[in-house]
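User: Hello, can you help with two protein structures?

Assistant: Certainly.
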Amino acid sequence: MMKKQIITIAGGGSTYTPGIVQAILNNEKRLPLSEIRLYDIDEERNMDMYLIVKFMLKKKVFQIFAFVQRMIQSLLLQDAILFSHKFVLEDWRCEKRTKRFHLNMD
Protein backbone atom coordinates (compact mmCIF):
# COMPACT_ATOMS: atom_id res chain seq x y z
CA MET A 1 0.00 0.00 0.00
CA MET A 2 1.30 3.43 -0.92
CA LYS A 3 1.89 6.12 1.64
CA LYS A 4 -0.98 8.60 1.84
CA GLN A 5 0.00 12.08 0.71
CA ILE A 6 -0.79 15.59 1.91
CA ILE A 7 -1.71 18.00 -0.89
CA THR A 8 -1.49 21.78 -0.42
CA ILE A 9 -3.25 23.92 -3.02
CA ALA A 10 -1.71 27.40 -3.08
CA GLY A 11 -4.32 29.83 -4.36
CA GLY A 12 -7.03 27.61 -2.91
CA GLY A 13 -9.63 30.38 -3.20
CA SER A 14 -9.52 30.13 -6.99
CA THR A 15 -12.56 28.98 -8.94
CA TYR A 16 -10.25 26.33 -10.43
CA THR A 17 -9.93 24.63 -7.04
CA PRO A 18 -13.00 22.33 -7.26
CA GLY A 19 -11.83 21.04 -10.65
CA ILE A 20 -8.31 20.49 -9.35
CA VAL A 21 -9.64 18.63 -6.31
CA GLN A 22 -11.96 16.52 -8.48
CA ALA A 23 -9.05 15.54 -10.74
CA ILE A 24 -7.01 14.55 -7.68
CA LEU A 25 -9.91 12.55 -6.22
CA ASN A 26 -10.50 10.78 -9.53
CA ASN A 27 -6.97 9.40 -9.17
CA GLU A 28 -7.31 8.34 -5.54
CA LYS A 29 -5.89 4.87 -6.27
CA ARG A 30 -2.75 6.35 -7.84
CA LEU A 31 -2.45 9.17 -5.30
CA PRO A 32 -3.98 8.21 -1.93
CA LEU A 33 -4.56 11.23 0.30
CA SER A 34 -4.52 11.80 4.01
CA GLU A 35 -5.13 15.55 3.87
CA ILE A 36 -6.03 18.39 1.53
CA ARG A 37 -4.90 21.91 2.47
CA LEU A 38 -6.25 25.08 0.87
CA TYR A 39 -4.31 28.31 1.16
CA ASP A 40 -5.14 31.71 -0.30
CA ILE A 41 -4.29 35.24 0.78
CA ASP A 42 -7.98 36.13 0.32
CA GLU A 43 -9.56 34.44 3.35
CA GLU A 44 -13.14 35.01 2.15
CA ARG A 45 -12.53 33.28 -1.19
CA ASN A 46 -10.60 30.52 0.57
CA MET A 47 -13.58 29.93 2.87
CA ASP A 48 -15.96 29.80 -0.11
CA MET A 49 -13.84 27.11 -1.78
CA TYR A 50 -13.46 25.29 1.53
CA LEU A 51 -17.25 24.94 1.77
CA ILE A 52 -17.56 23.81 -1.87
CA VAL A 53 -14.78 21.22 -1.60
CA LYS A 54 -16.10 20.02 1.77
CA PHE A 55 -19.48 19.41 0.09
CA MET A 56 -17.76 17.55 -2.78
CA LEU A 57 -15.93 15.27 -0.33
CA LYS A 58 -19.09 14.59 1.68
CA LYS A 59 -21.15 13.87 -1.45
CA LYS A 60 -18.64 11.36 -2.81
CA VAL A 61 -17.88 9.88 0.66
CA PHE A 62 -14.11 10.11 0.24
CA GLN A 63 -12.13 8.90 3.20
CA ILE A 64 -9.75 11.80 3.68
CA PHE A 65 -8.31 12.15 7.15
CA ALA A 66 -8.24 15.94 7.31
CA PHE A 67 -9.30 18.94 5.25
CA VAL A 68 -7.64 22.16 6.34
CA GLN A 69 -9.01 25.53 5.26
CA ARG A 70 -6.52 27.84 6.87
CA MET A 71 -3.17 27.44 8.52
CA ILE A 72 -0.03 29.18 9.65
CA GLN A 73 2.17 29.88 6.63
CA SER A 74 5.15 28.13 8.17
CA LEU A 75 3.15 24.88 8.24
CA LEU A 76 1.84 25.25 4.69
CA LEU A 77 4.36 22.93 3.06
CA GLN A 78 5.31 20.74 6.00
CA ASP A 79 5.31 17.14 4.67
CA ALA A 80 3.10 18.21 1.75
CA ILE A 81 3.04 18.22 -2.03
CA LEU A 82 2.41 21.75 -3.32
CA PHE A 83 0.09 22.39 -6.24
CA SER A 84 -0.10 25.91 -7.63
CA HIS A 85 -2.04 27.23 -10.58
CA LYS A 86 -1.78 30.89 -11.40
CA PHE A 87 -2.24 33.47 -14.10
CA VAL A 88 0.40 36.14 -14.62
CA LEU A 89 -0.52 39.41 -16.33
CA GLU A 90 2.30 40.77 -18.48
CA ASP A 91 1.94 43.43 -21.20
CA TRP A 92 -1.86 43.05 -21.39
CA ARG A 93 -1.57 39.32 -22.04
CA CYS A 94 -2.59 36.63 -19.63
CA GLU A 95 -0.12 33.78 -19.53
CA LYS A 96 -1.14 30.50 -17.94
CA ARG A 97 1.56 28.89 -15.84
CA THR A 98 1.24 25.63 -14.00
CA LYS A 99 3.76 24.23 -11.57
CA ARG A 100 4.09 20.46 -11.69
CA PHE A 101 5.93 18.23 -9.33
CA HIS A 102 6.80 14.64 -10.18
CA LEU A 103 5.84 12.13 -7.54
CA ASN A 104 7.63 8.92 -6.76
CA MET A 105 4.83 6.36 -6.62
CA ASP A 106 7.02 3.43 -5.52
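That covers the first. Now for the second protein you mentioned:
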Amino acid sequence: MMTRSEKRPNRKNDRKVLVAEESNKNWADLDSYSTSNSSSSSDSEPEEVHCFMENQTTTEDEVLDFSNFEFTREDLMNALNELVHEYRKLSQAFEEIKAENNGLKNSLVESSNAQLEDTDSLKTELSKLMIENDLLRNRSCEFKSENERLNEVMNSWTKSSVSLSKLHETQKPLNDKSGLGFSVGESSSEGTST
Protein backbone atom coordinates (compact mmCIF):
# COMPACT_ATOMS: atom_id res chain seq x y z
CA MET A 1 0.00 0.00 0.00
CA MET A 2 1.31 3.41 -0.87
CA THR A 3 1.65 6.09 1.75
CA ARG A 4 0.05 9.46 1.55
CA SER A 5 3.21 11.25 0.53
CA GLU A 6 3.84 8.77 -2.31
CA LYS A 7 0.39 9.33 -3.79
CA ARG A 8 0.71 13.12 -3.90
CA PRO A 9 3.06 15.14 -6.01
CA ASN A 10 5.69 17.09 -4.10
CA ARG A 11 4.94 20.77 -4.55
CA LYS A 12 6.47 22.50 -1.56
CA ASN A 13 7.53 25.63 -3.37
CA ASP A 14 4.61 25.98 -5.78
CA ARG A 15 2.19 28.80 -5.22
CA LYS A 16 -1.31 27.54 -5.87
CA VAL A 17 -4.09 29.73 -7.04
CA LEU A 18 -7.58 28.43 -7.61
CA VAL A 19 -9.39 30.18 -10.39
CA ALA A 20 -12.86 29.56 -11.68
CA GLU A 21 -13.33 29.92 -15.37
CA GLU A 22 -16.61 31.68 -15.87
CA SER A 23 -17.54 29.88 -19.05
CA ASN A 24 -17.47 26.27 -17.84
CA LYS A 25 -16.81 26.75 -14.07
CA ASN A 26 -13.80 24.41 -14.17
CA TRP A 27 -11.05 24.87 -11.63
CA ALA A 28 -7.53 25.17 -12.85
CA ASP A 29 -4.25 25.04 -11.01
CA LEU A 30 -2.31 28.05 -12.23
CA ASP A 31 1.34 27.71 -11.45
CA SER A 32 4.47 27.24 -13.43
CA TYR A 33 4.35 23.45 -13.08
CA SER A 34 0.75 22.95 -14.19
CA THR A 35 0.92 25.36 -17.13
CA SER A 36 3.98 23.65 -18.56
CA ASN A 37 2.44 20.20 -18.11
CA SER A 38 -0.99 21.17 -19.39
CA SER A 39 0.39 22.17 -22.78
CA SER A 40 2.07 18.79 -23.20
CA SER A 41 -0.77 16.67 -21.81
CA SER A 42 -3.49 15.22 -23.99
CA ASP A 43 -7.14 16.25 -23.80
CA SER A 44 -8.32 12.75 -22.86
CA GLU A 45 -6.37 12.75 -19.59
CA PRO A 46 -8.42 14.13 -16.65
CA GLU A 47 -7.14 17.31 -15.14
CA GLU A 48 -5.56 16.97 -11.71
CA VAL A 49 -7.14 19.35 -9.19
CA HIS A 50 -5.48 20.25 -5.88
CA CYS A 51 -7.27 21.92 -2.94
CA PHE A 52 -5.46 24.21 -0.56
CA MET A 53 -6.54 26.01 2.56
CA GLU A 54 -6.22 29.75 2.22
CA ASN A 55 -3.17 31.39 3.84
CA GLN A 56 -1.35 28.14 4.57
CA THR A 57 2.39 28.72 4.47
CA THR A 58 3.78 25.68 6.29
CA THR A 59 5.50 22.84 4.46
CA GLU A 60 2.97 20.38 5.86
CA ASP A 61 0.13 21.63 3.64
CA GLU A 62 -2.48 18.95 3.11
CA VAL A 63 -3.33 18.42 -0.54
CA LEU A 64 -6.26 16.22 -1.46
CA ASP A 65 -6.14 14.67 -4.91
CA PHE A 66 -9.75 14.39 -6.04
CA SER A 67 -8.87 12.49 -9.22
CA ASN A 68 -8.01 9.38 -7.14
CA PHE A 69 -11.23 8.36 -5.34
CA GLU A 70 -9.59 5.62 -3.23
CA PHE A 71 -7.04 8.02 -1.85
CA THR A 72 -9.71 10.60 -1.12
CA ARG A 73 -11.89 8.11 0.71
CA GLU A 74 -8.93 6.84 2.77
CA ASP A 75 -7.73 10.33 3.48
CA LEU A 76 -11.20 11.45 4.53
CA MET A 77 -11.56 8.41 6.78
CA ASN A 78 -8.20 9.14 8.43
CA ALA A 79 -9.11 12.80 8.82
CA LEU A 80 -12.51 11.83 10.22
CA ASN A 81 -10.91 9.37 12.66
CA GLU A 82 -8.46 12.05 13.76
CA LEU A 83 -11.35 14.49 14.24
CA VAL A 84 -13.32 11.93 16.25
CA HIS A 85 -10.26 11.17 18.37
CA GLU A 86 -9.62 14.87 18.91
CA TYR A 87 -13.32 15.41 19.70
CA ARG A 88 -13.20 12.63 22.30
CA LYS A 89 -10.12 14.14 23.91
CA LEU A 90 -11.70 17.57 23.95
CA SER A 91 -14.99 16.16 25.27
CA GLN A 92 -13.14 14.35 28.04
CA ALA A 93 -11.18 17.50 28.88
CA PHE A 94 -14.42 19.49 28.82
CA GLU A 95 -16.10 17.01 31.16
CA GLU A 96 -13.10 17.11 33.51
CA ILE A 97 -13.14 20.91 33.53
CA LYS A 98 -16.91 20.88 34.00
CA ALA A 99 -16.58 18.45 36.92
CA GLU A 100 -13.81 20.57 38.42
CA ASN A 101 -15.96 23.68 37.98
CA ASN A 102 -18.90 21.96 39.68
CA GLY A 103 -16.58 20.81 42.47
CA LEU A 104 -15.35 24.36 42.94
CA LYS A 105 -18.93 25.65 42.96
CA ASN A 106 -19.90 23.01 45.53
CA SER A 107 -16.90 23.80 47.72
CA LEU A 108 -17.72 27.50 47.43
CA VAL A 109 -21.33 26.82 48.44
CA GLU A 110 -20.17 24.57 51.29
CA SER A 111 -17.68 27.16 52.50
CA SER A 112 -20.35 29.86 52.21
CA ASN A 113 -22.76 27.67 54.20
CA ALA A 114 -20.05 26.97 56.76
CA GLN A 115 -19.32 30.68 57.01
CA LEU A 116 -23.03 31.41 57.39
CA GLU A 117 -23.28 28.75 60.10
CA ASP A 118 -20.20 30.21 61.78
CA THR A 119 -21.71 33.67 61.48
CA ASP A 120 -25.00 32.45 62.93
CA SER A 121 -23.25 30.71 65.82
CA LEU A 122 -21.12 33.81 66.41
CA LYS A 123 -24.25 35.98 66.40
CA THR A 124 -25.90 33.62 68.88
CA GLU A 125 -22.80 33.64 71.07
CA LEU A 126 -22.61 37.43 70.82
CA SER A 127 -26.25 37.82 71.87
CA LYS A 128 -25.64 35.47 74.84
CA LEU A 129 -22.60 37.50 75.85
CA MET A 130 -24.55 40.75 75.51
CA ILE A 131 -27.31 39.36 77.76
CA GLU A 132 -24.70 38.19 80.27
CA ASN A 133 -23.01 41.59 80.07
CA ASP A 134 -26.32 43.32 80.81
CA LEU A 135 -26.90 41.00 83.79
CA LEU A 136 -23.41 41.74 85.09
CA ARG A 137 -24.00 45.48 84.70
CA ASN A 138 -27.23 45.19 86.66
CA ARG A 139 -25.47 43.23 89.40
CA SER A 140 -22.66 45.77 89.39
CA CYS A 141 -25.19 48.58 89.85
CA GLU A 142 -26.82 46.63 92.68
CA PHE A 143 -23.43 46.07 94.34
CA LYS A 144 -22.58 49.73 93.91
CA SER A 145 -25.80 50.87 95.56
CA GLU A 146 -25.31 48.28 98.35
CA ASN A 147 -21.75 49.53 98.82
CA GLU A 148 -22.97 53.13 99.08
CA ARG A 149 -25.60 52.09 101.64
CA LEU A 150 -22.98 50.19 103.66
CA ASN A 151 -20.64 53.20 103.50
CA GLU A 152 -23.40 55.37 104.93
CA VAL A 153 -23.99 52.81 107.72
CA MET A 154 -20.25 52.71 108.46
CA ASN A 155 -20.08 56.50 108.54
CA SER A 156 -23.05 56.55 110.90
CA TRP A 157 -21.44 53.92 113.15
CA THR A 158 -18.16 55.79 113.10
CA LYS A 159 -19.90 59.01 114.12
CA SER A 160 -21.82 57.14 116.83
CA SER A 161 -18.61 55.55 118.10
CA VAL A 162 -16.88 58.94 118.26
CA SER A 163 -19.86 60.43 120.08
CA LEU A 164 -19.98 57.49 122.50
CA SER A 165 -16.29 57.75 123.31
CA LYS A 166 -16.67 61.50 123.89
CA LEU A 167 -19.59 60.72 126.18
CA HIS A 168 -17.51 58.19 128.10
CA GLU A 169 -14.73 60.69 128.51
CA THR A 170 -17.09 63.26 130.00
CA GLN A 171 -18.72 60.82 132.44
CA LYS A 172 -17.17 60.30 135.89
CA PRO A 173 -16.28 56.91 137.10
CA LEU A 174 -18.88 55.15 139.25
CA ASN A 175 -16.90 55.56 142.53
CA ASP A 176 -16.11 59.21 141.87
CA LYS A 177 -18.46 61.29 144.03
CA SER A 178 -16.69 64.59 143.64
CA GLY A 179 -18.34 67.38 141.90
CA LEU A 180 -21.72 69.00 142.16
CA GLY A 181 -24.16 67.61 144.71
CA PHE A 182 -21.62 65.75 146.69
CA SER A 183 -19.80 66.93 149.76
CA VAL A 184 -16.26 65.99 150.51
CA GLY A 185 -17.07 64.63 153.93
CA GLU A 186 -19.85 62.44 152.68
CA SER A 187 -17.77 60.75 150.15
CA SER A 188 -15.06 59.89 152.62
CA SER A 189 -17.45 58.67 155.31
CA GLU A 190 -19.21 56.44 152.86
CA GLY A 191 -15.99 55.09 151.66
CA THR A 192 -14.93 54.02 155.15
CA SER A 193 -18.24 52.61 156.28
CA THR A 194 -18.69 50.20 153.56
